[in-house]
């Protein structure tokens, strides 16, 4: 039967530090939370400029659930990535 024991060879402080440092770097590098995309927030005006629409169109699309608005107090923001993902591909009829 195997025991879950860690057996250390004789290591110097530097060697142990290097070993721990390499292990920590690997854990940090593979941490899924380090890979969150940057989510640029746009104001209403910024969202209108990006989509090239009037503010009434932006308001209507938000109320219809086509795009999502986020708010803090009376301010409204839109995630740029979500706006771009909400665009649909149109097929051309030849």
Task: Provide the fold topology.
Elements (H helix, E strand, L loop, with lengths): L12 H17 L11 E2 L1 H8 L3 H9 L6 E3 L2 E5 H7 L8
Antiparallel strand pairs: 1-3, 2-3
In short:
44% of the residues lie in helices and 11% in strands. It is mostly helical.
Describe this structure in words.
The chain has 94 residues and is mainly alpha-helical. The chain has a domain at 41-86. It has helices at residues 13-29, 44-51, 55-63, 80-86, and strands spanning 41-42, 70-72, 75-79. The protein has a 3-stranded antiparallel sheet.
Descriptive terms for the model:
94 residues, mainly alpha, 4 helices
Distance between the termini: 72 Å
Structural class per helix/strand content? Answer: mainly alpha
How many individual helices? 4
How many β strands by DSSP? 3
- What is the N-to-C succession of helices and strands? HEHHEEH
Q: Poorly predicted ranges (pLDDT <50, ≥5 residues)?
A: none
pLDDT average, as an integer?
85
Q: Rg to the nearest angstrom? A: 25 Å
């Amino acid at each position: 039967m195997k025991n879950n024991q860690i057996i250390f060879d004789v290591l110097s402080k530097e060697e142990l530090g290097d070993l721990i440092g390499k292990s920590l770097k690997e854990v940090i590098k593979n941490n899924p939370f380090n890979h969150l995309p940057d989510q640029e927030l746009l104001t209403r005006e910024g969202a209108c400029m990006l989509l090239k629409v009037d503010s009434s169109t932006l308001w209507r699309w938000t109320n219809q659930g086509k795009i999502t608005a986020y708010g803090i107090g009376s301010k409204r923001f839109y995630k740029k990535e979500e706006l771009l993902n909400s665009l649909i591909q149109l097929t051309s009829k030849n």
